[in-house]
Amino acid sequence: MPEQPALHFLVPACQAPEAYGPRIAEALRAAGWTVTTHALPGDYPLVDQSAILAADITVSRLPDGAAVLVDGLALPGIAAALSIDNRRLRFVALIERLLWRAPGLNADEAAARRNLEQGALALMRAVAAPNAEGVAEVTALGLAPEAVSVVSPDAGAVADLAAVLRSGPEPTVKTPA
Description:
The structure is a single chain. By secondary structure, the chain is α/β, with parallel strands linked by helices. It has a single domain, classed as Glycogen Phosphorylase B (Rossmann fold, 3-Layer(aba) Sandwich). It contains six helices and six strands, in the order βαβαβαβαβαβα. The chain has a six-stranded parallel sheet with strand order 2-1-3-4-5-6, sandwiched between helices. Helix 1 links the parallel strand 1 (about 5-10) and strand 2. Helix 1 (about 20-30) crosses helix 6 (about 155-165), helix 2 crosses helix 3 (about 75-85) and helix 3 (about 75-85) runs parallel beside helix 4. The longest helix is centred in the middle third of the chain and has 16 residues, at about 105-120.
């Protein structure tokens, strides 16, 4: 079996291991991928400036051209870094549920989270959701349907995600100033 490329997985430290993103990362490990988990500090999804700074530093230290899985819960912390690094890194989002649909949000909070998620997901190479309903919710944000797919944490679906991680044009590499 050929050696699989290394992956980096950005996940809030507070994310439960049985959640969608960690289960996908574990399925990729079981399929022979080297997955380095970067646990982001902070009280996600309500992050403060120190959590955003920690996420920015983590993303900036990833090697050029790296494939990066992003747990959907991490989007509020890495949103700023995405606009800087989306051309040099291969970002793929793992969206269990959209944050703007969380119960208990008032209209302004939901709108702010929706705008953040819509902008962050638009910078992804691909987006994976656990089911067709999740795919429909993500495409309703205006993402191209071909960029969003159902990926469950089983061997066959993970193989499809692996193909996405290997495909597409090479990211733009940063050049020193």
